[in-house]
Amino acid sequence: MTALPLDDNSCGWYQALPVPTSARVLSGEHNADYVVLGAGFAGLAAARRLAEHKPNACILLVDAQRVGYGASGRNSGFVIDLPHKFALEHPDPAHKQKLLGLNRAAIAQLQGLVEKHGIDCQWSHAGKYQGAVGERGEAFLDHFEHLMKDLGEPYRRVEKNELAGVLGTDYYNRAIYTPGCYLMQPAALVRGMAEHLPDNVELLEQSPIRTLTREGGMWRLQGDMGTIHTPQLLLGTSIFTREFGYLKNRLLPVMTFASWTRPLTDDELVRYGGQLDWGLTPADHAGTTVRMTADRRLLIRNTYKHVPKYGANVDESVRKKIRADHRRAFVARYPELAQVPFTHTWGGVYAISRNFTNFFGQLEDGVYASACDNGVGAAWGTISGTLLADLAVGADSRQLQDIRQVTGMPSLNPPEPFLGLGVKSRIMLAKWQSRSEI
User: Fold this and answer.
1) What is the pLDDT of residues 191-219, one digit of tens each?
2) What is the pLDDT averaged over residues 136-160?
3) Closest Cα to residue 39, out of 58, 15, 65?
4) What InterPro entries does this protein's entry cite (predicted)?
5) What share of the chain is helix, strand, coil (3-state, %, to 5)?
């Protein structure tokens, strides 16, 4: 039995949106020229690009949940241009420049859609701060500055006093500001893109696919109340790709968590004393991400868990403990706002690989996938989904060549129970080592 997404119903980004109109659900028998499975950043981009290449083709975009309810609507709302974390350590400068070019192509594509369709998603060219609390964080920050110099990318050091004026807290010693990042409301962005799909793309939501089989040169996708037959299948299913038998034992399901406040009142905003619309990621990778949204909400994100059963691994008691951890991080930064409550605490599942390699390409005849974004889903999902459609229709380009050169096969994982014990131990060690930065 295919394990389906089991996300909590308390994602602040999604709950802040108006209730969507009724979903069109898979029912009966369908034949399609192309099927895209998964309507997140990758799936939306793939379906749109297929429609551009094949305006007369029948294209079905299918998701087990509502658009914006899953992983693409649960991130912290950064669209980052720079190679991310471990990719930034790559020894080949050309490799990093390819990643940079791909990410920036994704940002340009997203911005074009936001402007063309008037998508209300708090889209903002705000840049990004990478912050350090103490000596450990500052050591990471020094290393990041060295990497920025090697990459030849613009950045600016931001010292404590200036940083406090932006963040409304003197908790951080200093930061490095990089200008190429955009901020947005992720659930609003993906829903907005889904509402403006090309005419020959039909979106089916709340339509989980239970089985995938090959029949007479066609793929048969079996849902609860309907069936789809197609010769060409594109998977934008991230960690759930393994549920269809692909990349098994190569993807690690990890969940990260966030909490946010209600919008601050005018009085609270005065006590806060900082700016609106900024985002800070930790110099120490296991530290805390903080955002102030354009609509006055403060968001805290930290805590990672290995979730082999996805959302089933996280019950209310676990979420309550995580919420308490977030509360401590929030009050440490904003003691003058200690009375401001959190309204939502949520988690989101994504795929990483042990060798930090993204998969992109053809899995077998008629099946293509972009899987394992290693934590940078907005930009990577957008460009990889776009180029996956190019690959499926045979449209070559320099960008397609670049993405094939910077991706590969995620390494095999050790068997259970060794995998679970190892991942859990590594997460616990990282949390302990980074405790001063959380």
Assistant:
1) 999 999 999 999 999 999 999 999 988 99
2) 96
3) 65
4) FAD-dep_OxRdtase, FAD/NAD-bd_sf
5) 40, 25, 40
